[in-house]
Amino acid sequence: MEKSAIYHQPCSSYAYPYDKETMHIKVRSKKDDIQSVVFIYGDPYENIKVDGEYQWVSHRAEMKKSATTNFHDYWFIAIKPEYRRLQYAFVLTDSNGESVFYGDRDFLPNDQVTFSVPDNFFKFPYIHEIDLFKTPEWVKSTVWYQIFPERFDNGDPDRSPENVLPWGSKDPDRDDFFGGDIQGIINRLDYLKDLGISGIYLNPIFKSPTNHKYDTLDYYTIDPHFGDKETFRTLVQEAHKRGIRIMLDAVFNHIGSKSKQWQDVIENEQKSVYKDWFHIHSFPVRDGENGNFDGKPSLSFDAFGFTTTMPKLNTANSEVQNYLLDIATYWIREFDIDGWRLDVANEVDHAFWKKFHQAVLKEKEDLYIVGEIWHNAWNWLQGDEFHSVMNYPLTKSIINFFIEDKIDSSQLISSLNGHFMKYSRNVNEAAFNLLDSHDTARILTLAKGDAQKVKQALAFLFAQTGSPCIYYGTEVGLDGGNDPLCRKCMIWDEEKQDLDMLQFTKKLIKLRNDYHSILSQGSLDWLETNDSSKKVLHFSRELGNQSLIFIFNHGDKEASVSLKEDHSYTDIWNSKEIETKKIDVPAQGFTVLKTKS
Amino acid sequence: MEKSAIYHQPCSSYAYPYDKETMHIKVRSKKDDIQSVVFIYGDPYENIKVDGEYQWVSHRAEMKKSATTNFHDYWFIAIKPEYRRLQYAFVLTDSNGESVFYGDRDFLPNDQVTFSVPDNFFKFPYIHEIDLFKTPEWVKSTVWYQIFPERFDNGDPDRSPENVLPWGSKDPDRDDFFGGDIQGIINRLDYLKDLGISGIYLNPIFKSPTNHKYDTLDYYTIDPHFGDKETFRTLVQEAHKRGIRIMLDAVFNHIGSKSKQWQDVIENEQKSVYKDWFHIHSFPVRDGENGNFDGKPSLSFDAFGFTTTMPKLNTANSEVQNYLLDIATYWIREFDIDGWRLDVANEVDHAFWKKFHQAVLKEKEDLYIVGEIWHNAWNWLQGDEFHSVMNYPLTKSIINFFIEDKIDSSQLISSLNGHFMKYSRNVNEAAFNLLDSHDTARILTLAKGDAQKVKQALAFLFAQTGSPCIYYGTEVGLDGGNDPLCRKCMIWDEEKQDLDMLQFTKKLIKLRNDYHSILSQGSLDWLETNDSSKKVLHFSRELGNQSLIFIFNHGDKEASVSLKEDHSYTDIWNSKEIETKKIDVPAQGFTVLKTKS
Ligand SMILES: [Ca+2]
Ligand SMILES: [Ca+2]
C-alpha cells in the first residue's frame, strides 16, 4: 500500500457541508492501489454501555471511487450526520488484503485499541448553516454572454470618440476606437434573448481614456462614449424584462493614472491626501522620472504588473476600502446590477474581499461574485469571498484536447477530474466556465478556423458542471488572435455571419436551458468507450432518476459506442429514437442521449 | 519517482508569508524518494527581451530537506520576492536522475515549453501585510500556568460554598467544593512570580452552580464563591505589576441551563424571547420531558454533547452575537485581561469567531486568542480567528514517548515533524503547549508517579517552539487521574510538596526565560544519536548565530552522544564546560548545551 499518497484534509474540499444537513467526504489514494475504502463514522458524543463500559456508537459505509486521475483515485461519500456533528476515519484495504486505519493521527493499526481513542478520528465538529458555501441559485441555470462594449454595436453614433473608425473596417490595434456603446447593447437585447442567453458579463464601462477601460478614471461615471447613467439604467431594466442578468467588471486592484487621486499624488507628492491610497516607495511618481518607465521593474510604486498607467490601490487603507465598497454597493443600489466580476482579484487582499462580500450581499443577497483568478483559487472560495472564479484551467484542458490535439482522452479526463476535485461541489456548481475572453485568443482562431472543432468544444463546455459563457461573436464565427485581435467588432452583417454556427449555438443553449438542473447539479460519470485511439469521450450526467449521456468523437473516423443494456435511449440532439444498444457517432461529431425511465 | 506522494497547496501552510517580505514555501515528497528539489521563482510580470522575444526572468534555488516523517520528506525554502509577487514551481529529481516539473497544472516535462507558459506555475499573487498571520509578540516569551480556581487556594474562607470541604481533605468528587477563590490566587502571586511564570490561564470564573463553572449562569458576574469584580480587578492589576498576564476561559458554545435565558425558554417555550438563542427542535425542553434526559441522544435541543445542563447557543443569531461580543470586550475594556481561551471552540461557527477576532483585537490589539481544539485545527488558524489552539497532539506525542513508552524516538520525531508541518511557522511559534489540563489525567499519574519521567517530559515541552503551560501543582508533585481527580486541591504544605520538583521547575522556567527568543523562534534540527535502542533524542535549536543543543536519554543506561567537531560547548543545564566532542547523558537524564561562538 502506498501510504505516502493517501491524503485527506479535514474541514476542506475533502470534508465540507454540501447543504445544512449533508456532509461530502473525500479521500485520495494512489491510482489503482486501494481496493476498498470503508468510512467509519458517528456522533463524537454518542456512546452506549456495553458490559459496563462506554463504547462509541459508530457506523460503517463503503465509499465510492468517484474520480481517477493519472496518479490518484478519489473516494467519495455523502452522509447526513443525525446530530450535525461528525467523527470519522477511513479503513483502506489494498489488493493484498492489507488494511490500515487513517485518521487525525495519521495511520494506525486497524484494531480495537485504535477505535477506542476518539482523538484518532477526524472531526467535522458541527454543521453551521451560516458557514455553508452559498451561491445564488439563478447562476446555475444561467448561460452567460460576455460583451466587450467598445466592439459589440455602435447604437449611438453621436456618442463616439473623435477618431472613431468605421465599424469593422480593420483589425483592431491597441488604441483604436470603433464606437461601440450601451445603446448598441440595448438594441441587441432581443437578438440575445433569441439566442437564449440569460446573463451578460460586461467588460468595464466606467469612465476611462482607453478602449478596454481597465484604467478607471471615475468609478461613479459611465464612460461618456458608452452612454450615461440613464442609458445604463435602461439596459439593466430592459435586460431584466427579458430575464437577462447583468454583471459588471470591477477593477479594484488598481486605478487609472488619469484619476483625480493619482493626479493629486503626482502633483502634491508627500503632501497629497491620496498618498496612502497607493503603495509608494519613493517620490516623484511621475512618468519618466525616478525609474517610472512603463514596463520597467524600477517603478517607484506598485502597479498592475509594471504598468505606469495602472497604479495599485492600497486596499488595506480604510479610506480606499470605504471608497471601493461604496462604489460596489452604489451600482447595485441605484441600478440593480446582478453580479460583479473582479479584475486581478488575486492581487487584492483577502481582508478587503471579505468586507466586499459582506457589503454587496447585504445590498442584494443573490448577487454573484466572480474573481479573475487563473490559478488554483481554493483560498478565495471558502464561502466568504467569491462565489466563483473565471474557470481558465477548465478552458485550457478543453483546448488541449478538442482544439490543439495536445492531449488524449485519458489525459483530458485526468485533468478535469483533478481540477474538479480541488474544490467543493458547491463551488463547481457555480463555476464561470469559458472557452475564451478579451484576455485570450478566440477559440475559432485557436482552432485555425475549424468550426467543427469549435462546436465540439462548446458542446463539451455546456455539458460540464458550472455556468457556460460565450464570448460575443463566437456564435457567428468571429475570430481573432491574442489581444488586441480578440476584440474585433461584432459581425452584424448577416452575409458575413456564420449562420450555421448561429443555429448550432442556439440549439446548444436551448439544450442547456432545457436540462439546466441536471447539467448544473447532476453527477458526472465517465463511461467505457472501447476506443484505443483515445479520441472518444462517453459520460453521463445524472440527477435523481434523470440522466443524459454525452458522446464526443474527436477522431477521424466513425466511432461505435456501447450503451448500458438496462436502459432505452432517445437521441435528443438529433431527435431520434435509439433502437439498439450501440450508437455510431461520426468523425468529429457528438451527440446527446436521454435515458427513458 | 513516486509522483502520487508529491504535494503542494498554494496559499496554505505550504506557501505563506512569514512576515511582510518573506515567503515560506514547502513541498512534500515520499520519504527517501527525491534527491533534490530546485525552486524556480520570479515575479510573474518581469520579462526581458531575448532575441526579440520576451522571456520570463526566473531564478533558481536549492530547497532544503527540513523535516522527515515515517512516510514523507518536507522540503523548505524562505524567499523575499522583490516586488511582493511570486510565481514559482518545483523541479524534483530522484536518485535515478529522473526530473519533473511540478506546478499549478501538476506534473509536466522539465523543459522550455513548460517554462514558457506562466499558467504552469503556482502563484502567491501579492504579499499583503493585512493578511499576515499575526500573533501577540509577548506570547512567544510567556510561560503559562493554568489554575482551576476552586482548587488553587482558599484565600477568603468567608467566600466559600455552604458545604465546603476542608482543603485537600479528600480526593474530589464531581460535586465537591473546597473553597478556592480569586483572593487565593492574589495571595499566591509572589509564589508564581518566584516560580518564574508570566501568564495565568484561569478556568471559568463567571457565575455558575458547579465547581468547574463551564455551565455559565451569568457572564457579567464573577462567581460569588470566587470573589467579585473588585477582587478580580485586583488580581489583574497585581498580576500585571509582576509582569504576569491573565487569560480567561470563554464558554460561548453553550450556556448553563440555570441562566435566565434558558429558564425563560423552559417557562415560555415558543413564546420565549430567547427561543432563537438556541437550536431547539421541539418543545418542551424541560429536563425529563420530551426525550430530554441527560446524556441521551433523544434531546429535543442541541447541547454540548448530550448534556441537558449545557444547551448550545445559536451563534448565528445576531442577538446572541451582540451579547457574546459585548461580554468578550467588556472584560477587556473594564478589567484589562490579556487573553481568551475559547471552550469547545470547534463547535461554534467560523462566522462568529471572525467577528470575535475583530471585536476583541479592536479592544486590545495584542490580546491572545486560544481555541480549545484537540484535532487538526488548520481552518481556525488562518489569521482571522484564533492565534493558537490547545496543542494536545503535541501532548500526546510527548506522553507516548516519555511517559508511556509506546513509541520510539523515530516515531516521536515523525509525529512531531508531521504535526508542525500542518501549520505555518507563525502558528507554531504562538502555540499553547501543555502536558495536561483539567480535561486530562495529570502527567505524574500517567507516569505512575515517576518524577524523573515528568521532568524529562517537561524539559522536552519547554524545548519546543510555542509557549509551554504548567498545570497548577505539577511543580510540587500534585497527581490525579481523569476528571474529577485531576482537579485536586493545590498542595501548600511544604512538607507534602515535592521540593525537588519545585526546584527543577524553577530552573527549567529560568532556562526558558533566559533563552526565550531561540526557543520560541529558532529552527529545530534533529541530530545524529548513534543510538540503536531509539531512546535518545538529540536536537539543536538555532536562531541567528546562537544555538542550543538538547540531549534526552530516555533509555536505561548512560548514552554517549557525539557533538559537532567545529564548535565548543558549555553545558548550561549542569553549569560546566564540555572539554571533549562527546557527551555522556545518564539514563533517564537530559542536558542542554550552548555552542560558544
Ligand atoms: Ca457610439
Ligand atoms: Ca473561599
Automatic annotation (TrEMBL), chains A, B:
<feature type="domain" description="Glycosyl hydrolase family 13 catalytic">
    <location>
        <begin position="146"/>
        <end position="512"/>
    </location>
</feature>
<comment type="similarity">
    <text>Belongs to the glycosyl hydrolase 13 family.</text>
</comment>
<dbReference type="Pfam" id="PF00128">
    <property type="entry name" value="Alpha-amylase"/>
</dbReference>
<keyword id="KW-0326">Glycosidase</keyword>
<protein>
    <recommendedName>
        <fullName>Alpha-amylase</fullName>
        <ecNumber>3.2.1.1</ecNumber>
    </recommendedName>
</protein>
<dbReference type="Pfam" id="PF02806">
    <property type="entry name" value="Alpha-amylase_C"/>
</dbReference>
<keyword id="KW-0119">Carbohydrate metabolism</keyword>
<dbReference type="InterPro" id="IPR006046">
    <property type="entry name" value="Alpha_amylase"/>
</dbReference>
<dbReference type="Pfam" id="PF02903">
    <property type="entry name" value="Alpha-amylase_N"/>
</dbReference>
<dbReference type="InterPro" id="IPR013780">
    <property type="entry name" value="Glyco_hydro_b"/>
</dbReference>
<dbReference type="InterPro" id="IPR004185">
    <property type="entry name" value="Glyco_hydro_13_lg-like_dom"/>
</dbReference>
<dbReference type="InterPro" id="IPR006047">
    <property type="entry name" value="GH13_cat_dom"/>
</dbReference>
<dbReference type="InterPro" id="IPR017853">
    <property type="entry name" value="GH"/>
</dbReference>
<dbReference type="InterPro" id="IPR006048">
    <property type="entry name" value="A-amylase/branching_C"/>
</dbReference>
<keyword id="KW-0378">Hydrolase</keyword>
<dbReference type="InterPro" id="IPR013783">
    <property type="entry name" value="Ig-like_fold"/>
</dbReference>
<dbReference type="InterPro" id="IPR045857">
    <property type="entry name" value="O16G_dom_2"/>
</dbReference>
